[in-house]
Amino acid sequence: MDRLIRRLGGAMLALFVLLLAQVTYIQVVASQRLADNPANATRQLIAEYRVDRGKIVAADGRTELALSRKSPGELKYQRHYPQGSLYADLTGYYSIIFGRSELEQSYNTYLSGDAPELIPQTLIDQVLGRPKRGATVVTTIDPAIQRAAAQALGNLPGGVVAIDPHTGDVKAIVANPSYDPNELASQDPKQVRAAWDRLTSDPDKPLLSRAIDELYPPGSTFKLVTAAAALENGFGPGSTWPNPPVLDLPQTTATLENFGGEHCLGGASQLTLAQALTVSCNVVFGQVGLKLGAAKLAAQAHAFGFATDASSGDVPFDIPFQEGVFPDASYFADRLPAVALSAIGQDNVAANPLQMALVASAIANGGSEMRPRLVSEIRDSSGQVVKTFAPEVFGQPISSQTAIQLTQMMVSVVQSGTGTVAQIPGIEVAGKTGTAQHGEGLAPHAWFVSFAPAQNPKIAVAVIVLDGGSLGSDATGGVVAAPIAKAVMEASLHE
Questions:
Q1: Longest CA pairwise span in the chain (Å)
Q2: Which of 315, 326, 322, 324 is nearest to 372 (CA)?
Q3: I need a surface site. Which of 194, 226, 381, 397 has the fewest CB within 10 A?
Q4: What residues have CB less than 8 Å from 249, skipping those under 6 apart?
Q5: β-strand partners of 216
Q6: pLDDT per position as a tens digit, 86-133
Q7: Quick one: which H or E segment has residue 102?
Q8: pLDDT single digits (tens) 316-359
Q9: Is 140 exposed, middle or buried (0-12, 13-18, 19+ CB in 10 A)?
């Protein structure tokens, strides 16, 4: 009997070793080959498309930005974007060939029903024989503001971002050109590849948002950062600065001129810092930059969220975002002229509307910069909230006193300076224009950064129109971009 038990035990041990070896082989040795097997990939795709993927909705909970619809064949559901290109920059696409992007990617575990918070609902669906259902992602986007931004931008190349400065809630992201994600969501591989080839070969790069993905010289809108650095370092709004017609740059025979070669304020011998911002005087702000020095300028820019290079990712956001760039102070060690140019938003300084909207929001919010928030909550398929995302402070780039002073200086820009087109009857608007050079012989980019009402801000807006829009070389931020920002602010204030 003992001999039989030992034989049985030996046989069981041998079988266990064989089983362990087989499992190890499948999970380790052959795992990649099995994963790469086309038949296995097809099964995975079929399983993925059997899920009733969750919706992406606007802040009102009703406006659908993305949803799934039943489809004939083995792929049971197909992604649909009811608004076409209007929300493409934030929803992204969901493609059988090219995967996912933007919110479709960032919140995939919730949309696909795989997040731990959704396990109870998934188990109930299994028991009841229902298809697996994903969660609803509720965004902070306001449809009325989004539509107003799209209508105001029209067909002009550029981007618009609107933010609630107190919460960081992103109310609108619009960019031109855009694309229709429905083309990439098709279940016809030929159609998807044709659309992809067309979009990726387009020199205007519609798959990259000019509001959040691309970077451009911010021009004179960056004077807000330079002015903040001056105020933080003891130079008040009333501090006076020489006002020559041109500024001789150190270490070179080159000079810095004002826009259009003008002499600021009719040639007054001196300007205050506040006056220089009101009329956007390059010569004065070049001097301010040189007086402050590269280290203080860089420190202030980085405090607002500008990175030292394009590879950094310091500002958290729900979807990929290329924050602005301001070089480290060491870059300027043997480049003093670059300090003056950087102080007016040129040289190697770069930004996009989201970055500049964050600068405006920090000023509007008493010096406290909120983390930009695009998603407020997650709801399971029965409508129950399973996760919320509260507003968060990103940093305190300036003091409350500096924020008050900058606000008043920006109000002067709109009341009597370069941004008068942005005036709204009965509402005090704070703003800053920008006209950014970006290449010899090229029309400038037109910028406007603003918030309103100035003393109790509800919305901060940043706009860029590339290459002067319809005005080309004659464009200025005050003429081209300010009316767009005004329309978005009006839409927000009338909500």
A1: 114
A2: 315
A3: 194
A4: 255, 256, 286, 336, 337, 340
A5: 351
A6: 999 999 999 999 999 999 999 999 999 999 998 888 888 777 778 889
A7: helix 102-106
A8: 999 999 999 999 999 999 899 999 999 999 999 999 999 999 99
A9: buried
Amino acid, single-letter form, for residue 43: R
Distance CA 473, CA 441 (A): 9
Mean of per-residue pLDDT scores for the chain: 92
Flag whether 477 is in a domain.
yes
CA 60, CA 395: separation in Å to the nearest integer?
Answer: 29
Q: Helix, strand or coil for residue 96?
A: coil
- The residue type of 471 is L
CB contact set of 448 (below 8 Å; sequence gap of 6+): 221, 419, 422, 431, 432, 433, 434, 461, 462, 463, 477, 478, 481, 482, 484, 485
How large is the average pLDDT for residues 434-456?
94
pLDDT digits (tens, 9 = 90+) for 212-233: 999 999 999 999 999 999 999 9
Tell me, what DSSP letter sits at residue 53? P
**How would you list the strands of the sheet with 445-452, edge to edge?**
170-176, 158-163, 459-465, 445-452, 430-436
Q: Which CATH number fits the domain that encloses residue 482?
A: 3.40.710.10
Residues with Cβ within 8 Å of 139's Cβ and at least 6 positions away in sequence, in order, are 56, 57, 58, 59, 65, 90, 103, 374, 375, 376
pTM score, two decimals? 0.90
pLDDT per position as a tens digit, 25-45? 554 455 556 455 555 556 777
Domain tally for the chain? 1
Amino acid at 34: L
CA distance 53 to 312: 32
Question: Is residue 379 in some structural domain?
Answer: no
Instruction: Lowest mean pLDDT of 118-132, 248-262, 301-315, name the range.
Output: 118-132
Instruction: Give me the domain span that covers residue 425.
Output: 219-374+390-493
In a domain, 88, yes or no: no
φ, ψ at 293 (rounded to 5°) = 90, 160
Whether the Cβ atoms of residue 65 and residue 79 lie closer than 8 Å to each other: no
Token pair recorded at residue 122: 């998934």
Confirm if 369 and 393 have CB atoms less than 8 A apart.
yes
Residue 354 domain flag: yes
> In this structure, how many other beta carbons lie within 10 angstroms of the beta carbon of residue 415?
16
| Measured CA distances, 382 to 51, 54, 63, 108 (Å) | 15, 11, 17, 18
**Stronger pLDDT, 260 or 457, i.e. the higher one:** 457
Q: Does the bond joining 177 to the residue before it have cis omega, within 30 degrees of 0? A: yes
| Positions marked active-site | 220
d(CA 100, CA 92): 7
> Which tops the pLDDT comparison, 495 or 24?
495
Burial 24-42 (b: 16+ CB within 10 A, else e): eeeeeeeeeeeeeeeeeee
Length of the chain measured in residues: 495
- Which residues, in sequence order, are bridge partners of residue 335? none
